[in-house]
Design a protein that fits this description.
The chain is of the alpha/beta class. It has nine helices and ten strands. It has a six-stranded mixed β-sheet, sandwiched between helices. Strands 2-1-4-5 form a four-stranded antiparallel β-sheet, with helices on one face. The two termini are 36 Å apart. It is found in: Cell membrane.
């Protein structure tokens, strides 16, 4: 579903992605972890070209990532993205936030888009909030709206860039529960997160990044119980003791 080959990315003199080789199968859940500044978010953002790359290639479902124009917009419609900040439209209701993309991009009728929005809001547990505005919802509820909004486009793959990092601790579980449900439902997902519990529970594969490289990748069980690289051992030693 996603193929990255020889991907390089610089920010000035900083080499933030180095020789990235990654294939993600249809229905696979890949969790990307690592220290701050390791390139995790940049990797995620290159997959729908929110960040350009300097060299290499990226394919989504067998198609090269377009550089610009309508072809890129079409591809982005197939790649759902959930950010740290919810990025909801404050002046639109929750239902309107979810229906905007399908009506504008997919050319869905308002009736069909409304029906689908209500189904998705029910799925993420906030259908009762459909007529409210984002400011009236908690952070956890707003992030669940953001997930429903991405799902409304019927994406082929979902990207999550630290979706719980801006949330209070008690709100994190409600968002992770929705993501676990998505994973169990067969959605192809690439998740950048610090939530090790989610990585253990929902991931098919854990990717560990450091200094712009994929240092190690393995099943969650193997990675957490028997990391191979010294860099991963050091990282896990620091975070799992707290």
């Amino acid at each position: 579903m996603v193929a990255m080959r020889g991907v390089q990315k610089h920010f000035g003199s900083l080499h933030v992605l180095q020789d990235i080789e990654l294939e993600v199968a249809r229905g696979e859940v890949v969790v990307v972890i690592g220290p701050s500044g390791s390139g995790k978010s940049t990797l995620c953002r290159t997959i729908n070209r929110l960040e350009t790359i300097d060299a290499g290639s990226i394919e989504i479902d067998g198609r090269p990532l377009p550089e610009e124009g309508k072809a890129l917009a079409d591809l982005r419609a197939d790649v759902g993205m959930v950010f740290q900040s919810f990025n909801l439209f404050a002046h639109k209701t929750i239902r309107e936030n979810v229906t905007l993309g399908p009506i504008r991009v997919r050319k869905a009728s308002k009736a069909d888009a409304d029906r689908r929005a209500d189904e998705l809001l029910e799925r993420v547990g906030i259908q009762a909030q459909a007529d409210k505005y984002p400011a009236q919802l908690s952070g956890g509820q707003q992030q669940r709206v953001a997930i429903a909004r991405a799902l409304a486009m019927d994406p082929k793959v979902m990207l999550f860039d630290e979706p719980t990092s801006a949330l209070d601790p008690e709100m994190i579980k409600e968002v992770l529960d929705v993501m676990v449900d998505l994973a169990k439902g067969g959605m192809t997902m690439i998740v950048v997160t610090h939530e090790m519990g989610f990585a253990r529970t929902a991931a098919d594969r854990v990717l560990f990044m450091a200094d712009g490289r994929i240092v190690e990748q393995n099943t969650p069980d193997q990675f957490f119980t028997n990391p191979e690289s010294d860099r991963a051992k050091d990282f896990l030693g620091k975070i799992l003791k707290h």
